Amino acid sequence: HSDVALYAAKAKGRNEFYFFDTELRHQLERRQHIERDLRAAIASSDLTSWFQPIVDLDTGRVAGIEALVRWTHPVHGTISPPEIITAAREIGALPVLTDMVFTNCCALMGRLNKSGRPEIKVAMNLSPLELDITEVDKLIIEGLRARGLSTAQFEIEITEESSLDYSRADKKLRTLAEAGVSIALDDFGTGFSTFASIKNGWITKIKIDKEFVSGSTSSLDDALLVKSVIDLGKALEIEVSAEGVETKENAKLLLSLGCVLAQGFLFSKPVSSSEILGTIERIETSKARLAS
Ligand code: C2E
Ligand code: MG
Ligand code: MG
Ligand code: MG
Protein backbone atom coordinates (compact mmCIF):
# COMPACT_ATOMS: atom_id res chain seq x y z
CA HIS A 1 0.00 0.00 0.00
CA SER A 2 2.84 2.37 -0.77
CA ASP A 3 0.56 4.38 -3.04
CA VAL A 4 -1.78 4.96 -0.17
CA ALA A 5 1.10 6.05 2.04
CA LEU A 6 2.39 8.38 -0.64
CA TYR A 7 -1.02 9.92 -1.16
CA ALA A 8 -1.37 10.47 2.53
CA ALA A 9 2.09 11.94 2.83
CA LYS A 10 1.38 14.36 0.02
CA ALA A 11 -1.97 15.26 1.41
CA LYS A 12 -0.60 15.99 4.83
CA GLY A 13 2.67 17.57 3.77
CA ARG A 14 6.14 16.05 3.74
CA ASN A 15 7.07 16.99 7.28
CA GLU A 16 3.95 15.56 8.69
CA PHE A 17 4.68 12.13 7.28
CA TYR A 18 5.03 10.81 10.80
CA PHE A 19 1.43 11.70 11.41
CA PHE A 20 0.20 9.52 8.61
CA ASP A 21 -2.16 7.53 10.69
CA THR A 22 -4.04 4.32 10.40
CA GLU A 23 -7.29 6.24 10.49
CA LEU A 24 -6.69 7.84 7.10
CA ARG A 25 -5.44 4.57 5.67
CA HIS A 26 -8.58 2.84 6.90
CA GLN A 27 -10.74 5.47 5.27
CA LEU A 28 -9.00 5.06 1.93
CA GLU A 29 -9.15 1.28 2.12
CA ARG A 30 -12.78 1.43 3.07
CA ARG A 31 -13.56 3.51 0.01
CA GLN A 32 -11.56 1.20 -2.24
CA HIS A 33 -13.31 -1.87 -0.85
CA ILE A 34 -16.73 -0.30 -1.19
CA GLU A 35 -16.09 0.61 -4.82
CA ARG A 36 -14.62 -2.83 -5.51
CA ASP A 37 -17.57 -4.72 -4.00
CA LEU A 38 -20.45 -2.48 -4.99
CA ARG A 39 -21.35 -4.01 -8.35
CA ALA A 40 -21.52 -7.52 -6.94
CA ALA A 41 -23.61 -6.24 -4.04
CA ILE A 42 -26.10 -4.60 -6.39
CA ALA A 43 -26.38 -7.79 -8.41
CA SER A 44 -26.91 -9.88 -5.29
CA SER A 45 -29.44 -9.22 -2.58
CA ASP A 46 -26.75 -7.80 -0.25
CA LEU A 47 -27.64 -4.32 -1.37
CA THR A 48 -31.36 -3.78 -1.23
CA SER A 49 -34.19 -1.44 -0.31
CA TRP A 50 -35.76 -1.21 3.12
CA PHE A 51 -39.11 0.40 3.59
CA GLN A 52 -40.54 2.97 5.99
CA PRO A 53 -44.28 3.66 6.32
CA ILE A 54 -45.78 7.15 6.05
CA VAL A 55 -48.85 7.46 8.25
CA ASP A 56 -52.05 9.48 7.86
CA LEU A 57 -52.44 11.03 11.31
CA ASP A 58 -56.17 11.59 10.83
CA THR A 59 -57.03 7.97 10.19
CA GLY A 60 -54.04 6.07 11.59
CA ARG A 61 -53.76 4.28 8.25
CA VAL A 62 -50.57 3.90 6.25
CA ALA A 63 -50.74 6.22 3.22
CA GLY A 64 -47.32 5.68 1.74
CA ILE A 65 -44.02 3.85 1.96
CA GLU A 66 -40.55 5.26 1.28
CA ALA A 67 -37.84 3.00 -0.12
CA LEU A 68 -34.41 3.48 1.47
CA VAL A 69 -31.30 1.77 0.16
CA ARG A 70 -29.38 -0.49 2.55
CA TRP A 71 -26.05 -2.28 2.37
CA THR A 72 -24.15 -4.12 5.06
CA HIS A 73 -20.61 -4.69 3.81
CA PRO A 74 -19.04 -7.95 5.09
CA VAL A 75 -15.98 -6.11 6.47
CA HIS A 76 -16.98 -2.48 6.82
CA GLY A 77 -20.50 -2.95 8.11
CA THR A 78 -23.32 -0.51 7.40
CA ILE A 79 -22.65 1.77 4.45
CA SER A 80 -24.79 4.90 4.47
CA PRO A 81 -27.02 5.70 1.48
CA PRO A 82 -25.01 8.82 0.53
CA GLU A 83 -21.82 6.74 0.59
CA ILE A 84 -23.47 4.12 -1.63
CA ILE A 85 -24.61 6.78 -4.11
CA THR A 86 -21.15 8.39 -4.21
CA ALA A 87 -19.41 5.06 -4.76
CA ALA A 88 -21.90 4.08 -7.47
CA ARG A 89 -21.19 7.33 -9.25
CA GLU A 90 -17.41 6.78 -8.99
CA ILE A 91 -17.58 3.37 -10.66
CA GLY A 92 -20.24 4.31 -13.20
CA ALA A 93 -22.88 2.10 -11.63
CA LEU A 94 -25.40 4.76 -10.76
CA PRO A 95 -27.88 3.76 -13.51
CA VAL A 96 -27.69 0.14 -12.33
CA LEU A 97 -28.44 1.25 -8.79
CA THR A 98 -31.38 3.40 -9.93
CA ASP A 99 -32.70 0.41 -11.84
CA MET A 100 -32.42 -1.87 -8.83
CA VAL A 101 -34.15 0.56 -6.48
CA PHE A 102 -36.95 1.07 -9.01
CA THR A 103 -37.37 -2.69 -9.41
CA ASN A 104 -37.62 -3.05 -5.62
CA CYS A 105 -40.32 -0.36 -5.52
CA CYS A 106 -42.28 -2.12 -8.27
CA ALA A 107 -42.08 -5.44 -6.44
CA LEU A 108 -43.52 -3.81 -3.33
CA MET A 109 -46.30 -2.13 -5.32
CA GLY A 110 -47.24 -5.52 -6.73
CA ARG A 111 -47.42 -7.02 -3.23
CA LEU A 112 -49.49 -4.10 -1.91
CA ASN A 113 -51.93 -4.54 -4.77
CA LYS A 114 -52.20 -8.27 -4.11
CA SER A 115 -52.96 -7.64 -0.47
CA GLY A 116 -55.71 -5.19 -1.36
CA ARG A 117 -53.82 -1.97 -0.60
CA PRO A 118 -53.29 -0.29 -3.98
CA GLU A 119 -53.95 3.13 -2.41
CA ILE A 120 -50.62 3.00 -0.55
CA LYS A 121 -48.11 5.03 -2.56
CA VAL A 122 -44.53 3.86 -2.93
CA ALA A 123 -41.86 6.57 -2.96
CA MET A 124 -38.38 6.30 -4.43
CA ASN A 125 -35.54 8.72 -3.68
CA LEU A 126 -33.75 10.16 -6.69
CA SER A 127 -30.51 12.06 -6.20
CA PRO A 128 -29.91 15.10 -8.42
CA LEU A 129 -27.24 13.23 -10.34
CA GLU A 130 -29.47 10.24 -11.08
CA LEU A 131 -32.09 12.64 -12.32
CA ASP A 132 -29.48 14.26 -14.52
CA ILE A 133 -27.60 11.32 -16.04
CA THR A 134 -30.19 8.60 -16.38
CA GLU A 135 -33.37 8.54 -18.43
CA VAL A 136 -35.46 8.12 -15.31
CA ASP A 137 -38.60 9.42 -16.95
CA LYS A 138 -38.51 6.60 -19.49
CA LEU A 139 -37.36 4.03 -16.94
CA ILE A 140 -40.26 4.83 -14.63
CA ILE A 141 -43.08 5.35 -17.10
CA GLU A 142 -42.23 2.35 -19.27
CA GLY A 143 -41.28 0.20 -16.29
CA LEU A 144 -44.61 0.79 -14.57
CA ARG A 145 -46.55 0.20 -17.76
CA ALA A 146 -44.71 -3.06 -18.51
CA ARG A 147 -45.62 -4.36 -15.05
CA GLY A 148 -49.22 -3.22 -15.22
CA LEU A 149 -48.69 -0.75 -12.35
CA SER A 150 -50.32 2.65 -12.06
CA THR A 151 -48.30 5.87 -12.14
CA ALA A 152 -50.75 7.20 -9.53
CA GLN A 153 -49.31 4.72 -7.03
CA PHE A 154 -45.75 5.92 -7.54
CA GLU A 155 -43.88 8.88 -6.12
CA ILE A 156 -40.36 10.20 -6.48
CA GLU A 157 -38.58 12.25 -3.84
CA ILE A 158 -36.10 14.78 -5.12
CA THR A 159 -33.63 17.14 -3.51
CA GLU A 160 -32.00 20.16 -5.02
CA GLU A 161 -28.33 20.90 -5.55
CA SER A 162 -26.71 24.15 -6.58
CA SER A 163 -24.30 22.51 -9.01
CA LEU A 164 -26.93 20.91 -11.20
CA ASP A 165 -28.31 22.32 -14.42
CA TYR A 166 -31.99 21.83 -13.89
CA SER A 167 -33.15 22.41 -17.47
CA ARG A 168 -32.75 18.73 -18.38
CA ALA A 169 -34.10 17.55 -15.05
CA ASP A 170 -37.02 19.92 -15.39
CA LYS A 171 -38.11 18.31 -18.65
CA LYS A 172 -37.96 14.81 -17.14
CA LEU A 173 -39.89 15.88 -14.05
CA ARG A 174 -42.54 17.51 -16.18
CA THR A 175 -42.87 14.31 -18.26
CA LEU A 176 -43.23 12.23 -15.10
CA ALA A 177 -45.76 14.62 -13.58
CA GLU A 178 -47.84 14.65 -16.76
CA ALA A 179 -47.83 10.85 -16.73
CA GLY A 180 -49.34 10.92 -13.23
CA VAL A 181 -46.29 10.29 -11.04
CA SER A 182 -46.25 12.27 -7.79
CA ILE A 183 -43.19 14.41 -7.10
CA ALA A 184 -42.13 15.24 -3.56
CA LEU A 185 -39.57 17.88 -2.65
CA ASP A 186 -37.48 16.18 0.04
CA ASP A 187 -35.62 17.75 2.99
CA PHE A 188 -37.52 21.00 2.63
CA GLY A 189 -35.92 23.82 4.57
CA THR A 190 -32.34 22.60 4.21
CA GLY A 191 -29.62 23.10 1.61
CA PHE A 192 -31.03 24.05 -1.74
CA SER A 193 -34.55 22.79 -1.28
CA THR A 194 -36.08 26.13 -2.00
CA PHE A 195 -39.16 27.95 -3.09
CA ALA A 196 -37.92 28.21 -6.66
CA SER A 197 -38.86 24.69 -7.68
CA ILE A 198 -42.29 24.84 -6.10
CA LYS A 199 -43.48 27.34 -8.63
CA ASN A 200 -42.42 25.12 -11.54
CA GLY A 201 -45.73 23.42 -11.17
CA TRP A 202 -44.80 19.77 -10.92
CA ILE A 203 -44.24 19.49 -7.17
CA THR A 204 -47.14 17.62 -5.55
CA LYS A 205 -45.71 17.26 -2.06
CA ILE A 206 -43.30 18.99 0.31
CA LYS A 207 -41.46 16.88 2.89
CA ILE A 208 -40.43 18.96 5.89
CA ASP A 209 -36.93 18.00 6.95
CA LYS A 210 -36.60 16.02 10.17
CA GLU A 211 -34.35 18.64 11.69
CA PHE A 212 -37.27 21.06 12.00
CA VAL A 213 -39.81 18.40 12.86
CA SER A 214 -37.86 17.04 15.81
CA GLY A 215 -37.07 20.56 16.97
CA SER A 216 -40.65 21.75 16.72
CA THR A 217 -41.73 20.66 20.18
CA SER A 218 -38.84 22.40 21.93
CA SER A 219 -37.95 25.33 19.68
CA LEU A 220 -40.45 28.03 18.80
CA ASP A 221 -38.47 28.93 15.68
CA ASP A 222 -38.70 25.37 14.40
CA ALA A 223 -42.39 25.19 15.22
CA LEU A 224 -43.02 28.42 13.34
CA LEU A 225 -41.06 27.18 10.37
CA VAL A 226 -43.01 23.94 10.33
CA LYS A 227 -46.26 25.88 10.56
CA SER A 228 -45.33 28.19 7.70
CA VAL A 229 -44.47 25.26 5.42
CA ILE A 230 -47.82 23.65 6.26
CA ASP A 231 -49.62 26.93 5.50
CA LEU A 232 -47.66 27.31 2.26
CA GLY A 233 -48.70 23.83 1.20
CA LYS A 234 -52.32 24.62 1.91
CA ALA A 235 -52.19 27.88 -0.04
CA LEU A 236 -50.61 26.18 -3.05
CA GLU A 237 -52.65 22.99 -2.69
CA ILE A 238 -49.52 20.91 -2.32
CA GLU A 239 -49.47 17.99 0.13
CA VAL A 240 -47.20 18.36 3.16
CA SER A 241 -45.51 15.48 4.92
CA ALA A 242 -43.25 15.50 7.98
CA GLU A 243 -40.22 13.24 8.39
CA GLY A 244 -38.39 12.41 11.60
CA VAL A 245 -41.49 12.13 13.78
CA GLU A 246 -40.09 10.45 16.87
CA THR A 247 -42.50 11.33 19.66
CA LYS A 248 -46.24 11.52 20.22
CA GLU A 249 -45.79 15.20 21.04
CA ASN A 250 -44.28 15.70 17.56
CA ALA A 251 -47.24 13.98 15.93
CA LYS A 252 -49.83 15.85 17.97
CA LEU A 253 -48.27 19.21 17.22
CA LEU A 254 -48.15 18.41 13.50
CA LEU A 255 -51.78 17.37 13.46
CA SER A 256 -52.84 20.51 15.32
CA LEU A 257 -50.96 22.60 12.74
CA GLY A 258 -52.72 20.80 9.91
CA CYS A 259 -50.05 18.36 8.73
CA VAL A 260 -51.66 14.99 8.15
CA LEU A 261 -48.82 12.88 6.74
CA ALA A 262 -46.04 11.79 9.08
CA GLN A 263 -43.10 9.44 8.97
CA GLY A 264 -40.64 8.51 11.68
CA PHE A 265 -39.43 6.19 14.38
CA LEU A 266 -42.63 6.80 16.40
CA PHE A 267 -44.42 4.56 13.91
CA SER A 268 -41.58 2.46 12.55
CA LYS A 269 -37.96 2.47 11.55
CA PRO A 270 -37.27 1.37 7.99
CA VAL A 271 -37.82 -2.41 7.77
CA SER A 272 -36.90 -5.14 5.31
CA SER A 273 -39.24 -6.15 2.51
CA SER A 274 -40.21 -9.31 4.41
CA GLU A 275 -41.33 -7.22 7.41
CA ILE A 276 -43.15 -4.37 5.70
CA LEU A 277 -46.64 -5.84 5.35
CA GLY A 278 -46.63 -6.94 9.00
CA THR A 279 -45.41 -3.50 10.02
CA ILE A 280 -48.31 -1.83 8.21
CA GLU A 281 -50.71 -4.10 10.06
CA ARG A 282 -49.07 -3.41 13.41
CA ILE A 283 -49.27 0.37 12.92
CA GLU A 284 -52.89 0.26 11.87
CA THR A 285 -54.08 -1.98 14.69
CA SER A 286 -52.01 -0.18 17.31
CA LYS A 287 -54.10 0.99 20.23
CA ALA A 288 -51.83 3.95 20.76
CA ARG A 289 -54.03 6.28 18.75
CA LEU A 290 -52.85 9.85 18.61
CA ALA A 291 -56.09 11.71 18.41
CA SER A 292 -56.96 11.16 22.04
P1 C2E B 1 -34.35 11.04 3.14
O1 C2E B 1 -34.95 10.72 1.83
O2 C2E B 1 -34.66 12.36 3.74
O3 C2E B 1 -34.81 9.85 4.08
C1 C2E B 1 -35.11 9.97 5.43
C2 C2E B 1 -33.98 9.52 6.31
O4 C2E B 1 -34.34 9.72 7.67
C3 C2E B 1 -33.64 8.03 6.20
O5 C2E B 1 -32.25 7.89 6.43
C4 C2E B 1 -34.43 7.43 7.36
O6 C2E B 1 -33.92 6.20 7.82
C5 C2E B 1 -34.28 8.52 8.39
N1 C2E B 1 -35.37 8.54 9.35
C6 C2E B 1 -36.65 8.14 9.20
N2 C2E B 1 -37.38 8.37 10.32
C7 C2E B 1 -36.54 8.94 11.20
C8 C2E B 1 -36.71 9.43 12.56
O7 C2E B 1 -37.78 9.38 13.17
N3 C2E B 1 -35.60 9.97 13.14
C9 C2E B 1 -34.41 10.04 12.51
N4 C2E B 1 -33.37 10.58 13.15
N5 C2E B 1 -34.22 9.60 11.23
C10 C2E B 1 -35.27 9.07 10.59
P2 C2E B 1 -31.33 6.98 5.51
O8 C2E B 1 -32.04 5.73 5.16
O9 C2E B 1 -30.00 6.89 6.17
O10 C2E B 1 -31.19 7.81 4.17
C11 C2E B 1 -30.48 9.03 4.13
C12 C2E B 1 -30.69 9.72 2.81
O11 C2E B 1 -30.08 8.98 1.76
C13 C2E B 1 -32.16 9.84 2.40
O12 C2E B 1 -32.75 10.93 3.08
C14 C2E B 1 -32.05 10.01 0.92
O13 C2E B 1 -31.76 11.34 0.58
C15 C2E B 1 -30.85 9.14 0.58
N6 C2E B 1 -31.30 7.81 0.09
C16 C2E B 1 -31.75 6.74 0.82
N7 C2E B 1 -32.08 5.72 0.01
C17 C2E B 1 -31.86 6.14 -1.25
C18 C2E B 1 -32.02 5.53 -2.56
O14 C2E B 1 -32.46 4.39 -2.74
N8 C2E B 1 -31.67 6.30 -3.63
C19 C2E B 1 -31.21 7.59 -3.49
N9 C2E B 1 -30.89 8.28 -4.58
N10 C2E B 1 -31.04 8.18 -2.29
C20 C2E B 1 -31.37 7.46 -1.19
MG1 MG C 1 -36.67 10.80 0.97
MG1 MG D 1 -35.96 13.78 3.69
MG1 MG E 1 -32.95 13.79 4.75
Topology:
Layout: H1 2-12, H2 22-43, E1 47-56, E2 62-73, E3 77-79, H3 81-90, H4 94-114, E4 121-126, H5 128-133, H6 136-146, E5 154-158, H7 166-178, E6 182-188, E7 205-208, H8 210-215, H9 220-236, E8 239-243, H10 248-257, E9 261-263, H11 276-285
Helix pairs in contact: 2-3, 4-6, 6-7
The chain binds ligand C2E and magnesium ion (3 copies).
Features:
292 residues; alpha/beta; 11 helices; binds ligand C2E; binds magnesium ion
Question: What can you see in these coordinates?
Answer:
The protein is α/β, with parallel strands linked by helices and 292 residues long. Helix content is 47%, strand content 19%. It is built from 11 helices and 9 strands. The protein has an 8-stranded mixed β-barrel with strand order 1-2-4-5-6-7-8-9, surrounded by 5 helices. α2 (22-43) packs across α3 and α4 (94-114) runs parallel beside α6 (136-146).
